[in-house]
């Protein structure tokens, strides 16, 4: 259940411990580019694997790439080309919060088509 409080500690507790999988879906929404907004009449949709996104904030600002993985538990996405080198030399993806990206191209299938037509 979503907290009705204004207290940040209760919201943080809900976000990190108590939120259920079906409630996390709304946290994985990202804004659409202006041409997609006009086309579908929506401001934001849920990020999916295969979508093309542009990072708008942070260290990798301006980078464009495909979404490789969506982490529901941590509410983060991983974008192709956004990597960091570890001390042992291996490359790992850097987690990005969906609110910091803009979707530039959508991966459309039957389920998503119904969602966009609603």
Task: Give a written overview of the molecule.
The chain has helices at residues 8-18, 21-24, 34-40, 110-117; strands spanning 29-32, 44-46, 52-55, 64-71, 76-79, 83-85, 91-93, 101-105. A hairpin with an 8-residue loop joins strand 3 and strand 4 (64-71). It is of the alpha+beta class and 118 residues long. The protein has one domain: SH3 type barrels (Roll), CATH 2.30.30.30. The radius of gyration is 16 Å and the shape is globular. The mean pLDDT is 93.
Structural class given helices, strands, pairing?
Answer: alpha+beta
| Strand arrangement, major sheet | 2-1-8-3-4-5
The span between the termini is 25 Å
Q: How would a textbook summarize the main sheet? A: 6 strands, mixed
Name the poorly predicted regions.
none
CATH topology title? SH3 type barrels
Helix run count: 4
- The helical percent reads 25-40%
Shape: globular
CATH architecture classification name? Roll
State mean pLDDT (0 to 100 scale): 93
CATH class: Mainly Beta
